[in-house]
Task: structure prediction
Amino acid sequence: MIKDNLSNLLQSIPDSATLVAVSKTKPVASLLEAYEAGQRDFGENKVQEMADKATVLPQNIRWHMIGHLQRNKVKYIAPFVSLIHSVDSVRLLNEIDKQGQKNNRVINCLLQVRIAQEETKFGLTFDSCDEILNQNNYTHVRIRGLMGMASFTNNQAQIDSEFKSLAQYYKQHQEHHEWDTLSMGMSGDYPLALSCGSTMIRVGSRIFGARN
Ligand SMILES: *Cc1c(COP(=O)(O)O)cnc(C)c1O
Result:
């Protein structure tokens, strides 16, 4: 049951860590079940699906965009999104700033860093993060930290070193940029992510069951 999965999970993580329940592909009824158990942070990876769910679900849900975001779709989530984890280009950041301005709100963002060995993962290099942070003059974007995904592997040492590289960069910049969010860890690797300093985990299948 979703409720039991949630409470088991919450018992196993520190109070200081935020749990984002990743509800992509899951029906509204499942999200409502988690909501009724007290869950307020939900993660989706598709703009249309998030917007549709936000329309029918309670207003006090905090919506997290965790999937690759196209610039031409930012406008659909700009009015309500709570945190965009997947900022992977300057052009995307410019568009989020523009849409924040239009909606008269400051949009919270994380820079997604490519820490995995795999070719397929989206994300910035640490060098491009440096560039973005050095010329950060956005008025309607607030960068609150970083997001990263480890390689899909059973090699714990590799996952550990990937998480640690992100945590190290985070710690180096946290104070200066007043960051408060390091988003790393999913169903398979969240304990390791937390031990490496994660403040926010994104968990789907462990709460809602396997996706088709
Ligand atoms: C799907 C997804 C998750 C959750 O994955 P699970 O293995 O089901 O916990 C976390 N982060 C991102 C970016 C995802 O796309």
In short: Residues 22, 24, 45, 66-67, 149, 186-188, 202-206 surround pyridoxal-5'-phosphate (CB under 6 Å). DSSP finds nine helices and eight strands in the chain.
